[in-house]
Design a protein that fits this description.
Order of helices and strands: HHHHHHHHHH
Largest sheet: none
Shape: elongated
Distance between the termini: 104 Å
Structural class: mainly alpha
Length: about 210
Amino acid sequence: MKTQSRAACAAFYNQVLKQILGFVNPIIVFISSAVMARPETIKTELAQRLRDVRHRLGDPVRAEFSKKLGIGQSSLANYERGDSVPDANVLLAYREQFGVNGDWLISGHGPMFLDGGPPESDASVTDDGKPMVQSNIFKETGKLVHESHKAKGVTLPSDAHLAETVSRYNELVAAARNPADESELRALFPWLELRISQDLEEAQNAPGSGKRSG
């Protein structure tokens, strides 16, 4: 009798346990889904624009999209959240792969895409007559900015380096008689390097910088 009683109790408890699990499991699944579906917090305007680009292109998954940009999926996620800032090569990849307007990506001004959308145009100017960003010149400007600051003992964080590169590239283009002429822009690099060096020296010798020229 005791054995039968124990068996009956065990069967009863197993039935109750199944009912409890049947009730609890959907709740766990619901909570897990809600947590996973929670929208990401986008911390910067640049991150929002990067996310907007992917959305406009049909919301491809990050694994697929990042592969076209030549970066890792986790890096793309960090850029789109604003946890880190993409370097000049990544921003240029948006232009080269998807026809994204670099000026819009950096500043938010102008259209999102060159010529209204991808693929990018081979023209040297945009519809409003402004010269397009020349990727090779932009990359070399970024390298020049980095090396010039390094020579003065200055290390720029990634976001400041990007902003400085954009500013110096714009200076270079403004100084050229024909901004679409790559050879002319290259010829102006020594002038730009001198400008950067002079600006850094002036900043280092300014009152409050802690440095003085001898």
